Amino acid sequence: MAPTDSVxxxxxxxxxxxxxxxxxxxxxxxxxxxRTALQQSFKDITKTDEGEKPxxxxxDRRRKVFNLVLxxxxxxxxxxxxxxxGFFNLxxxxxxxxxxxxxxxxRQHVIFLLTVISASPSDNSSVKYRILSNLFNTTPRSSALxxxxxxxxxxxxxxxxxxxxxxxxxxxxxxxxxxxEVSDEGKSQFLKTIVDTLTQAGQQESAYDYRILHxxxxxxxxxxxxxxxxxxxxxxxxxxxVFDFDALYSLDAVIAVKxxxxxxxxxxxxxxxxxxxxxxxxxxxAVLESYQLERPQLERKIRLLAFSxxxxxxxGRNLPYSTIASTLHIDSSEVEKWTIDVIRAGLxxxxxxxxxxxxxxxxxSARKFEREQxxxxxxxxxxxxxxxxxxxxxxxxxxxxxGGVAEVVQAAQNEQGTQVEGTA
Length: 424
Fold this sequence. Notes:
Elements: H1 15-26, H2 32-46, H3 59-71, H4 81-98, H5 104-119, H6 125-138, H7 146-159, H8 170-179, H9 184-200, H10 204-217, H11 223-238, H12 245-249, H13 252-255, H14 263-271, H15 274-283, H16 285-290, H17 295-312, E1 318-320, H18 321-328, H19 335-344, E2 348-353, E3 358-364, H20 371-400, H21 405-421
Antiparallel strand pairs: 1-3, 2-3
Protein backbone atom coordinates (compact mmCIF):
# COMPACT_ATOMS: atom_id res chain seq x y z
CA MET A 1 0.00 0.00 0.00
CA ALA A 2 1.29 3.46 -0.91
CA PRO A 3 2.22 5.57 2.14
CA THR A 4 -0.24 8.23 3.31
CA ASP A 5 -0.24 10.76 6.16
CA SER A 6 -3.51 9.62 7.70
CA VAL A 7 -4.89 7.25 10.32
CA UNK A 8 -7.50 4.65 9.45
CA UNK A 9 -11.22 5.35 9.87
CA UNK A 10 -13.04 2.71 11.93
CA UNK A 11 -16.84 2.73 11.57
CA UNK A 12 -19.33 0.40 13.16
CA UNK A 13 -22.06 -1.45 11.26
CA UNK A 14 -22.43 -3.17 7.93
CA UNK A 15 -21.93 -1.51 4.57
CA UNK A 16 -25.69 -0.96 4.24
CA UNK A 17 -25.92 0.57 7.71
CA UNK A 18 -23.05 2.95 7.05
CA UNK A 19 -24.49 4.04 3.70
CA UNK A 20 -27.90 4.47 5.32
CA UNK A 21 -26.27 6.75 7.92
CA UNK A 22 -24.57 8.80 5.21
CA UNK A 23 -27.78 9.08 3.20
CA UNK A 24 -29.79 10.17 6.25
CA UNK A 25 -27.25 12.92 6.93
CA UNK A 26 -27.44 14.29 3.36
CA UNK A 27 -31.24 14.27 3.42
CA UNK A 28 -31.71 16.19 6.68
CA UNK A 29 -32.72 19.41 5.02
CA UNK A 30 -34.71 17.81 2.18
CA UNK A 31 -38.52 18.04 2.05
CA UNK A 32 -40.28 14.95 3.36
CA UNK A 33 -41.34 13.70 -0.07
CA UNK A 34 -37.74 13.90 -1.33
CA ARG A 35 -36.47 12.02 1.72
CA THR A 36 -39.07 9.32 1.13
CA ALA A 37 -38.10 8.98 -2.52
CA LEU A 38 -34.42 8.82 -1.57
CA GLN A 39 -35.04 6.08 0.96
CA GLN A 40 -37.00 4.09 -1.60
CA SER A 41 -34.11 4.38 -4.08
CA PHE A 42 -31.76 3.14 -1.37
CA LYS A 43 -34.00 0.14 -0.64
CA ASP A 44 -34.34 -0.70 -4.33
CA ILE A 45 -30.55 -0.79 -4.80
CA THR A 46 -29.70 -2.65 -1.61
CA LYS A 47 -32.49 -5.21 -1.90
CA THR A 48 -31.11 -8.65 -2.71
CA ASP A 49 -33.46 -10.80 -4.77
CA GLU A 50 -33.32 -14.56 -4.82
CA GLY A 51 -30.28 -15.77 -6.70
CA GLU A 52 -28.45 -12.43 -6.45
CA LYS A 53 -25.19 -11.86 -4.65
CA PRO A 54 -25.43 -10.00 -1.34
CA UNK A 55 -24.61 -6.31 -1.77
CA UNK A 56 -21.49 -6.80 0.33
CA UNK A 57 -20.18 -8.99 -2.50
CA UNK A 58 -21.68 -7.00 -5.38
CA UNK A 59 -19.28 -4.18 -6.27
CA ASP A 60 -21.50 -2.71 -8.96
CA ARG A 61 -24.45 -2.27 -6.55
CA ARG A 62 -22.18 -0.91 -3.83
CA ARG A 63 -20.86 1.69 -6.25
CA LYS A 64 -24.39 2.52 -7.34
CA VAL A 65 -25.62 3.13 -3.82
CA PHE A 66 -22.50 5.16 -3.02
CA ASN A 67 -23.25 7.35 -6.04
CA LEU A 68 -26.74 7.86 -4.63
CA VAL A 69 -25.18 9.37 -1.51
CA LEU A 70 -22.65 11.36 -3.50
CA UNK A 71 -25.26 12.90 -5.81
CA UNK A 72 -27.30 14.00 -2.80
CA UNK A 73 -24.32 15.70 -1.13
CA UNK A 74 -25.02 19.38 -1.74
CA UNK A 75 -22.75 20.94 0.89
CA UNK A 76 -21.11 20.23 4.21
CA UNK A 77 -24.52 19.64 5.73
CA UNK A 78 -26.34 20.91 8.81
CA UNK A 79 -24.65 18.88 11.54
CA UNK A 80 -22.24 20.06 14.17
CA UNK A 81 -18.52 20.08 13.39
CA UNK A 82 -17.99 16.55 14.70
CA UNK A 83 -20.85 15.20 12.56
CA UNK A 84 -19.66 17.05 9.45
CA UNK A 85 -16.10 15.79 9.78
CA GLY A 86 -17.27 12.25 10.55
CA PHE A 87 -19.60 12.23 7.52
CA PHE A 88 -16.85 13.18 5.09
CA ASN A 89 -14.26 10.87 6.66
CA LEU A 90 -16.63 7.92 6.18
CA UNK A 91 -17.52 9.09 2.68
CA UNK A 92 -13.83 9.29 1.71
CA UNK A 93 -13.20 5.87 3.21
CA UNK A 94 -15.87 4.24 1.04
CA UNK A 95 -14.75 6.17 -2.03
CA UNK A 96 -11.19 4.85 -1.80
CA UNK A 97 -12.46 1.36 -1.05
CA UNK A 98 -14.77 1.18 -4.07
CA UNK A 99 -12.35 2.65 -6.63
CA UNK A 100 -8.59 2.72 -7.12
CA UNK A 101 -7.17 5.96 -5.72
CA UNK A 102 -5.88 7.38 -8.98
CA UNK A 103 -8.62 5.99 -11.26
CA UNK A 104 -10.56 8.41 -13.50
CA UNK A 105 -13.73 7.71 -11.49
CA UNK A 106 -12.06 8.58 -8.20
CA ARG A 107 -10.68 11.80 -9.63
CA GLN A 108 -14.11 12.74 -10.96
CA HIS A 109 -15.73 12.09 -7.56
CA VAL A 110 -12.99 13.97 -5.66
CA ILE A 111 -13.22 17.01 -7.94
CA PHE A 112 -17.01 17.01 -7.40
CA LEU A 113 -16.57 16.88 -3.63
CA LEU A 114 -13.94 19.63 -3.69
CA THR A 115 -16.38 21.86 -5.54
CA VAL A 116 -19.18 21.05 -3.09
CA ILE A 117 -17.02 21.65 -0.01
CA SER A 118 -15.45 24.89 -1.20
CA ALA A 119 -18.80 26.33 -2.36
CA SER A 120 -20.65 25.40 0.82
CA PRO A 121 -21.80 28.49 2.77
CA SER A 122 -20.65 27.03 6.08
CA ASP A 123 -20.09 29.82 8.60
CA ASN A 124 -17.24 27.95 10.25
CA SER A 125 -14.35 27.65 7.83
CA SER A 126 -12.29 25.57 10.27
CA VAL A 127 -14.37 22.46 9.56
CA LYS A 128 -13.68 22.87 5.85
CA TYR A 129 -9.94 22.94 6.55
CA ARG A 130 -10.21 19.75 8.57
CA ILE A 131 -12.28 17.98 5.90
CA LEU A 132 -9.86 18.95 3.13
CA SER A 133 -6.79 18.22 5.25
CA ASN A 134 -8.17 14.78 6.07
CA LEU A 135 -8.77 14.11 2.38
CA PHE A 136 -5.25 15.32 1.53
CA ASN A 137 -3.70 13.09 4.19
CA THR A 138 -5.86 10.10 3.22
CA THR A 139 -4.55 10.04 -0.34
CA PRO A 140 -1.16 8.41 -0.95
CA ARG A 141 1.78 10.81 -0.90
CA SER A 142 2.46 10.15 -4.59
CA SER A 143 -1.17 10.63 -5.65
CA ALA A 144 -2.07 13.04 -8.45
CA LEU A 145 -5.13 13.96 -6.38
CA UNK A 146 -3.06 15.91 -3.88
CA UNK A 147 -2.46 19.03 -6.04
CA UNK A 148 -6.17 19.79 -6.64
CA UNK A 149 -7.01 19.03 -3.00
CA UNK A 150 -4.38 21.44 -1.68
CA UNK A 151 -5.34 23.99 -4.31
CA UNK A 152 -8.87 23.94 -2.89
CA UNK A 153 -7.44 24.39 0.60
CA UNK A 154 -5.61 27.49 -0.63
CA UNK A 155 -8.76 28.85 -2.27
CA UNK A 156 -10.83 28.40 0.90
CA UNK A 157 -8.11 29.98 3.03
CA UNK A 158 -7.62 33.04 0.84
CA UNK A 159 -11.40 33.51 0.50
CA UNK A 160 -11.62 33.72 4.30
CA UNK A 161 -8.43 35.75 4.70
CA UNK A 162 -6.96 32.93 6.77
CA UNK A 163 -4.00 31.83 4.67
CA UNK A 164 -1.68 31.80 7.68
CA UNK A 165 -3.67 28.90 9.16
CA UNK A 166 -2.26 26.56 6.51
CA UNK A 167 1.33 27.27 7.59
CA UNK A 168 2.48 26.71 4.01
CA UNK A 169 6.24 26.20 3.82
CA UNK A 170 8.65 26.08 0.91
CA UNK A 171 10.28 22.92 2.25
CA UNK A 172 6.92 21.11 2.31
CA UNK A 173 6.12 22.20 -1.23
CA UNK A 174 9.51 21.07 -2.52
CA UNK A 175 9.02 17.69 -0.84
CA UNK A 176 5.52 17.30 -2.27
CA UNK A 177 6.73 18.06 -5.79
CA UNK A 178 9.28 15.26 -5.48
CA UNK A 179 6.68 12.81 -4.17
CA UNK A 180 3.77 13.54 -6.49
CA GLU A 181 3.47 11.41 -9.61
CA VAL A 182 2.22 14.23 -11.78
CA SER A 183 3.54 15.76 -14.98
CA ASP A 184 6.06 18.60 -14.99
CA GLU A 185 3.29 20.78 -16.38
CA GLY A 186 1.07 19.85 -13.45
CA LYS A 187 3.80 20.72 -10.96
CA SER A 188 4.38 24.07 -12.65
CA GLN A 189 0.68 24.82 -12.55
CA PHE A 190 0.55 24.04 -8.84
CA LEU A 191 3.45 26.42 -8.18
CA LYS A 192 1.74 29.12 -10.23
CA THR A 193 -1.40 28.61 -8.16
CA ILE A 194 0.60 29.23 -4.98
CA VAL A 195 2.16 32.37 -6.46
CA ASP A 196 -1.23 33.70 -7.56
CA THR A 197 -2.85 32.85 -4.22
CA LEU A 198 -0.14 34.52 -2.12
CA THR A 199 -0.14 37.55 -4.42
CA GLN A 200 -3.92 37.83 -4.14
CA ALA A 201 -3.58 37.67 -0.37
CA GLY A 202 -1.06 40.52 -0.44
CA GLN A 203 1.84 38.31 0.64
CA GLN A 204 4.22 39.42 -2.12
CA GLU A 205 7.40 38.55 -0.26
CA SER A 206 6.25 34.99 0.45
CA ALA A 207 5.16 34.65 -3.17
CA TYR A 208 8.66 35.55 -4.39
CA ASP A 209 10.22 32.27 -3.19
CA TYR A 210 7.60 30.34 -5.13
CA ARG A 211 8.14 32.55 -8.18
CA ILE A 212 11.71 31.27 -8.23
CA LEU A 213 10.51 27.65 -7.99
CA HIS A 214 7.90 28.24 -10.68
CA UNK A 215 10.46 29.78 -13.02
CA UNK A 216 12.82 26.85 -12.42
CA UNK A 217 10.04 24.37 -13.22
CA UNK A 218 9.51 25.69 -16.76
CA UNK A 219 11.61 25.18 -19.92
CA UNK A 220 13.81 28.33 -20.09
CA UNK A 221 13.18 28.95 -23.79
CA UNK A 222 9.41 28.42 -23.63
CA UNK A 223 7.03 31.39 -23.72
CA UNK A 224 5.78 30.37 -20.27
CA UNK A 225 9.33 30.18 -18.93
CA UNK A 226 10.25 33.59 -20.28
CA UNK A 227 7.04 35.17 -19.01
CA UNK A 228 7.71 33.72 -15.55
CA UNK A 229 11.31 34.97 -15.67
CA UNK A 230 10.23 38.53 -16.47
CA UNK A 231 7.64 38.41 -13.68
CA UNK A 232 10.29 37.20 -11.24
CA UNK A 233 12.73 39.94 -12.26
CA UNK A 234 10.03 42.58 -11.77
CA UNK A 235 9.08 41.13 -8.37
CA UNK A 236 12.72 41.07 -7.23
CA UNK A 237 13.15 44.71 -8.17
CA UNK A 238 9.81 45.72 -6.67
CA UNK A 239 10.15 44.03 -3.28
CA UNK A 240 12.00 46.14 -0.69
CA UNK A 241 13.52 43.10 1.08
CA VAL A 242 15.02 41.32 -1.95
CA PHE A 243 18.69 42.10 -2.41
CA ASP A 244 20.10 38.84 -3.79
CA PHE A 245 20.12 39.44 -7.54
CA ASP A 246 23.05 37.10 -8.13
CA ALA A 247 20.88 34.01 -7.48
CA LEU A 248 18.25 35.37 -9.85
CA TYR A 249 20.83 36.13 -12.54
CA SER A 250 22.01 32.51 -12.47
CA LEU A 251 18.63 31.14 -13.63
CA ASP A 252 18.64 29.87 -17.21
CA ALA A 253 15.19 31.34 -17.84
CA VAL A 254 16.43 34.79 -16.75
CA ILE A 255 19.43 34.60 -19.07
CA ALA A 256 17.03 33.59 -21.84
CA VAL A 257 15.30 37.00 -21.59
CA LYS A 258 18.53 39.01 -21.95
CA UNK A 259 16.90 41.04 -24.73
CA UNK A 260 14.00 42.11 -22.54
CA UNK A 261 13.73 45.76 -21.51
CA UNK A 262 14.05 44.91 -17.79
CA UNK A 263 17.25 42.90 -18.18
CA UNK A 264 19.60 45.96 -18.25
CA UNK A 265 18.04 47.15 -14.99
CA UNK A 266 18.72 43.75 -13.41
CA UNK A 267 22.37 44.04 -14.48
CA UNK A 268 22.61 47.50 -12.92
CA UNK A 269 21.35 46.15 -9.59
CA UNK A 270 23.85 43.33 -9.81
CA UNK A 271 26.90 45.33 -10.85
CA UNK A 272 26.49 49.11 -10.66
CA UNK A 273 25.48 51.99 -8.43
CA UNK A 274 23.28 55.04 -8.15
CA UNK A 275 24.61 57.02 -11.16
CA UNK A 276 24.00 54.13 -13.58
CA UNK A 277 20.52 53.53 -12.20
CA UNK A 278 19.63 57.20 -12.33
CA UNK A 279 20.71 57.45 -15.97
CA UNK A 280 18.68 54.36 -16.92
CA UNK A 281 15.59 55.50 -15.01
CA UNK A 282 15.65 58.94 -16.65
CA UNK A 283 15.22 57.34 -20.07
CA UNK A 284 12.94 54.43 -19.11
CA UNK A 285 10.17 55.97 -17.01
CA ALA A 286 7.54 54.13 -19.09
CA VAL A 287 9.16 50.78 -18.27
CA LEU A 288 9.08 51.57 -14.54
CA GLU A 289 5.40 52.45 -14.78
CA SER A 290 4.59 49.37 -16.85
CA TYR A 291 5.98 47.02 -14.19
CA GLN A 292 4.76 49.04 -11.18
CA LEU A 293 8.31 49.89 -10.12
CA GLU A 294 8.55 52.93 -7.88
CA ARG A 295 11.67 54.99 -8.50
CA PRO A 296 12.20 56.17 -4.87
CA GLN A 297 12.11 52.57 -3.66
CA LEU A 298 14.54 51.47 -6.36
CA GLU A 299 16.87 54.35 -5.48
CA ARG A 300 16.89 53.16 -1.88
CA LYS A 301 17.71 49.60 -2.90
CA ILE A 302 20.52 50.53 -5.28
CA ARG A 303 22.09 52.74 -2.60
CA LEU A 304 21.93 49.96 -0.01
CA LEU A 305 23.48 47.50 -2.48
CA ALA A 306 26.22 49.98 -3.36
CA PHE A 307 26.82 50.50 0.37
CA SER A 308 27.20 46.74 0.99
CA UNK A 309 29.59 46.41 -1.96
CA UNK A 310 31.68 49.28 -0.62
CA UNK A 311 31.61 47.74 2.85
CA UNK A 312 32.87 44.42 1.47
CA UNK A 313 36.05 46.18 0.38
CA UNK A 314 36.55 47.64 3.87
CA UNK A 315 35.94 44.61 6.10
CA GLY A 316 38.20 44.94 9.16
CA ARG A 317 38.92 48.60 8.41
CA ASN A 318 37.48 52.06 8.97
CA LEU A 319 35.28 53.35 6.14
CA PRO A 320 35.26 57.18 6.05
CA TYR A 321 31.92 58.99 6.00
CA SER A 322 33.12 60.98 2.98
CA THR A 323 33.66 57.79 0.95
CA ILE A 324 30.19 56.53 1.84
CA ALA A 325 28.58 59.87 0.92
CA SER A 326 30.43 59.96 -2.39
CA THR A 327 29.49 56.38 -3.33
CA LEU A 328 25.83 56.75 -2.39
CA HIS A 329 25.52 60.31 -3.78
CA ILE A 330 24.16 61.66 -0.52
CA ASP A 331 25.08 64.44 1.89
CA SER A 332 27.53 63.57 4.67
CA SER A 333 24.82 64.37 7.23
CA GLU A 334 22.79 61.41 5.90
CA VAL A 335 25.53 58.81 6.27
CA GLU A 336 24.50 57.63 9.72
CA LYS A 337 20.86 57.23 8.64
CA TRP A 338 21.90 55.10 5.66
CA THR A 339 24.25 53.09 7.85
CA ILE A 340 21.37 52.20 10.13
CA ASP A 341 19.29 51.23 7.08
CA VAL A 342 21.94 48.96 5.60
CA ILE A 343 22.48 47.24 8.95
CA ARG A 344 18.73 46.72 9.40
CA ALA A 345 18.58 45.24 5.91
CA GLY A 346 21.12 42.63 7.01
CA LEU A 347 23.66 43.66 4.39
CA UNK A 348 26.40 45.00 6.67
CA UNK A 349 27.55 44.94 10.28
CA UNK A 350 29.80 47.55 11.85
CA UNK A 351 30.22 50.35 14.38
CA UNK A 352 29.90 54.07 13.76
CA UNK A 353 32.34 56.56 15.23
CA UNK A 354 31.29 60.19 15.18
CA UNK A 355 34.64 61.18 16.61
CA UNK A 356 36.56 59.78 13.62
CA UNK A 357 33.69 60.24 11.15
CA UNK A 358 34.05 56.64 10.07
CA UNK A 359 32.36 53.25 10.10
CA UNK A 360 34.34 50.24 11.25
CA UNK A 361 33.09 47.37 9.07
CA UNK A 362 32.88 43.99 10.79
CA UNK A 363 31.22 42.22 7.87
CA UNK A 364 29.38 42.94 4.65
CA SER A 365 27.58 41.10 1.86
CA ALA A 366 28.90 40.94 -1.67
CA ARG A 367 26.33 41.45 -4.43
CA LYS A 368 27.91 38.64 -6.40
CA PHE A 369 30.61 36.11 -5.70
CA GLU A 370 33.01 35.75 -8.61
CA ARG A 371 36.78 35.51 -8.94
CA GLU A 372 37.43 38.96 -7.48
CA GLN A 373 35.35 38.22 -4.37
CA UNK A 374 36.94 34.80 -3.90
CA UNK A 375 40.41 36.36 -4.10
CA UNK A 376 39.47 38.99 -1.50
CA UNK A 377 38.12 36.27 0.77
CA UNK A 378 41.32 34.25 0.35
CA UNK A 379 43.44 37.23 1.39
CA UNK A 380 41.35 37.75 4.51
CA UNK A 381 41.51 34.10 5.47
CA UNK A 382 45.28 34.09 5.04
CA UNK A 383 45.52 37.21 7.19
CA UNK A 384 43.42 35.57 9.90
CA UNK A 385 45.57 32.46 9.68
CA UNK A 386 48.69 34.54 10.15
CA UNK A 387 47.08 36.37 13.04
CA UNK A 388 46.13 33.13 14.80
CA UNK A 389 49.63 31.77 14.27
CA UNK A 390 50.96 34.89 15.97
CA UNK A 391 48.57 34.40 18.89
CA UNK A 392 49.73 30.81 19.32
CA UNK A 393 53.35 31.93 19.25
CA UNK A 394 52.75 34.63 21.88
CA UNK A 395 50.90 32.24 24.19
CA UNK A 396 53.64 29.60 23.85
CA UNK A 397 56.31 32.19 24.56
CA UNK A 398 54.48 33.49 27.63
CA UNK A 399 54.10 29.97 29.01
CA UNK A 400 57.74 29.27 28.37
CA UNK A 401 58.87 32.29 30.40
CA UNK A 402 56.35 31.67 33.19
CA GLY A 403 53.89 34.50 32.48
CA GLY A 404 50.65 34.58 34.46
CA VAL A 405 47.23 34.01 32.95
CA ALA A 406 46.42 37.72 32.74
CA GLU A 407 49.70 38.47 30.98
CA VAL A 408 49.17 35.63 28.50
CA VAL A 409 45.64 36.78 27.64
CA GLN A 410 46.70 40.41 27.25
CA ALA A 411 49.65 39.48 25.04
CA ALA A 412 47.44 37.29 22.87
CA GLN A 413 44.83 40.04 22.50
CA ASN A 414 47.48 42.58 21.55
CA GLU A 415 48.92 40.25 18.93
CA GLN A 416 45.53 39.33 17.47
CA GLY A 417 44.41 42.95 17.35
CA THR A 418 47.56 43.95 15.48
CA GLN A 419 47.20 41.19 12.90
CA VAL A 420 43.46 41.59 12.28
CA GLU A 421 43.53 45.37 11.97
CA GLY A 422 46.10 45.06 9.26
CA THR A 423 43.92 42.83 7.03
CA ALA A 424 42.16 44.14 3.95
